[in-house]
Amino acid sequence: MSILNTSVSGMQADSNWLSTISQNVANSNTAGYKNVETDFSSLVDQIADGDQSFGGVSTRAVSLNALQGTVVSTSTATNLAVQGSGFFVVSDSSGTLYLTRNGSFTPDASGNLVNNAGYYLMAENVQNGAPPLAANSLTGLEKVNVVNAGQTATPTTSGSLTANLPSTASPVAPANLPSTNSAGSTYTAATSLVVYDNLGASHTINFYFTNTGPNTWEVDAYDAAGASANAGFPYSSGPLATQTLTFNPTNGTLSTGSPLSFTIPNGQTMNLDLSNMTQLAAGFNVTAATANGNAPSGISGVSVSTSGSIMFNYANGTSSVAYDIPLANVVSPNNLASVNGSAYLPTASSGPVYLGTAGGAGFGKIESSSLESSTVDLATELTDMIQAQSAYEANSKVFQTGANILDVLNGLKP
What we know:
414 residues; mainly beta; Tick-borne Encephalitis virus Glycoprotein, domain 1; 3 domains; ten-stranded antiparallel sheet; five-stranded mixed sheet; 30 strands; rod-shaped
């Protein structure tokens, strides 16, 4: 009977081996799939007085989750692959969290990133600021949504203006300076900048430069919306800022007066850098003028950095970080429990899940517009299939031999 039992366990083991081979072959094109190997272990029923009673063989299927698959490029920016150690954290529709290397994420009808197995990508929402995630907990993660960003506007807070003021200009009498905001106000030169308030509305700020004496100028900033219908002066309200500029008489560079600070209507305090202003024997000429901030703009695309930062890119050319994708891992990835869709759950044998930043110590980098291929090698699987088939047939021969012996024993008569 021991011959029959041992050969049956052998056939069962080889059948399990063929089953894992079949699973590997079927998933040779599944993104993020890790091939499964069958480990064989001998069984011994008992040992008595030095005699061994063999019991056959047992098998255990092991998913080689630590293997790195080939990373291939795709045309979808939200397709993600991990180059190195780590797993994406995903959830199913009920909110249960899993780990996966299947990064075939695309927006669903609601804009949530979901892979082809139905798992949603989880990340930390940092659009309004967020504290650091706990390294040993998956709480605080939420579904990544890439269509509900709405519009964004950035108020102006800084800028710069570079221009030359003519050293040959005649001084203006104090009573007629732009800072007096009178009908008789006059100036030497003027220019303007478009800036943005807290709501993204644009404002034109007029700047007046007026010679007040040797190497000395006055600069005044006015909100253009308050200008009179004629020549500008008088404005409906006084200047936003008035400041004195002094220049070095030997080389014409600015000595004092930069930056010029003022509050934009319904906006922030703007610091205008004037340090590159000059006073030379040439006409008034603006050579550079910049101001940050932007009008309201909608999202035009999404990009992902190697560290896992998801950035919303807006039509006006600006971008902002919306989510941080953490990577998760366990001490023993090969002991994770496999579930449908190339996803995994931690077990007592795998160890608990811990989080980290992509590209940080112990974690790989995230590559966007990429997918990790299956680790299955078809040539190896087909070779193993032949070996498993031969072993199964050999065990069946042993079983047949045992059955023949049993027939002989049953045919013996006293």
